């Protein structure tokens, strides 16, 4: 710890990203990346970017990208905000809508960036305990609060909250911003964006990292009524007006506009998820029902930590969280069918060794 660090720097516990290995080749199913390449239109769009434009600042309003997103969701361009990945959008939202001394609520088992942002921005937060099966207790989110943050489907559980329950939470918190983080919604769920015309307190956050295979490009966006988007703009323009570079903007437009490829890509992931889940159930694992591009699994007789290390030694990376309530679970991202077949085979061998 450095004597030059501020008190905030000293006190925060930073987010720990999933391992990005160097050197040895792994089957990498630990960071919820899409196993398939982005739309061919993305590369075409990037190749068309003129080199001379790189000496100029990008469009700070991201007009064409926001227009493409607005058309996709049936909204106006004024109801769309874009940022450098959904993590940046989330950070801006925490700053824009939540106040110190007025606790925000989010689930106890959820995206671990939420408590990090709360600490960074000196916001009080209360963790709401999920039910035993990791489903969300809606009633617990109707208590007094300074705002609500819910990942839907949740990470790392994959559990999905139906639109009717989101509506109940919105109705019960009309004076607070309810943020629905939909990083994984495209793998089977219905987006809460359909509720935006009815609820001025709803902010929906998306990413192109997962279903559009653009994790390396860093593009995220938020959807909401104009007042909320204006709030995000105020924070962005007090931090960095040029959050998205010109290459990211044209590539993201191309990805969003290729709806046929998007449907093909996400459907392949969902089919693989359901097949792998079924096989793991047959192998005696508990598999939390998932509407994401990953599954959370556990085995009553086998330590998740031991399996994590065993898989890694065999060249397969999965995610292990040494956290309360999920310390005997592994999160498995969906790879290609070939990747998942190898994972299942190695897992089966490890189970035989532990007998």
Please tell me about this protein's structure.
45% of the residues are buried. The strands form 3 sheets. The chain has a 7-stranded mixed beta sheet with strand order 2-8-7-6-5-3-4, sandwiched between helices. It has a 4-stranded antiparallel beta sheet with strand order 9-10-13-12. Strand 3 (104-107), helix 5 and strand 4 (125-128) form a beta-alpha-beta unit. It is of the alpha/beta class. The chain has helices spanning 7-11, 40-47, 63-73, 86-97, 113-120, 163-171, 226-236, 246-257, 259-282, 304-313, 337-354; strands at residues 27-28, 80-83, 104-107, 125-128, 147-151, 178-181, 202-207, 220-224, 286-288, 294-298, 316-317, 319-320, 329-333. The protein has 2 domains: 19-37 and 260-354, Aspartate Aminotransferase, domain 1, CATH 3.90.1150; 40-257, Aspartate Aminotransferase, domain 2 (3-Layer(aba) Sandwich), CATH 3.40.640.10.
Layout of strands and helices, then pairs:
Blueprint: H1 7-11, E1 27-28, H2 40-47, H3 63-73, E2 80-83, H4 86-97, E3 104-107, H5 113-120, E4 125-128, E5 147-151, H6 163-171, E6 178-181, E7 202-207, E8 220-224, H7 226-236, H8 246-257, H9 259-282, E9 286-288, E10 294-298, H10 304-313, E11 316-317, E12 319-320, E13 329-333, H11 337-354
Parallel strand pairs: 1-11, 3-4, 3-5, 5-6, 6-7
Antiparallel strand pairs: 2-8, 7-8, 9-10, 10-13, 12-13
Helix pairs in contact: 2-8, 3-8, 4-7, 9-11
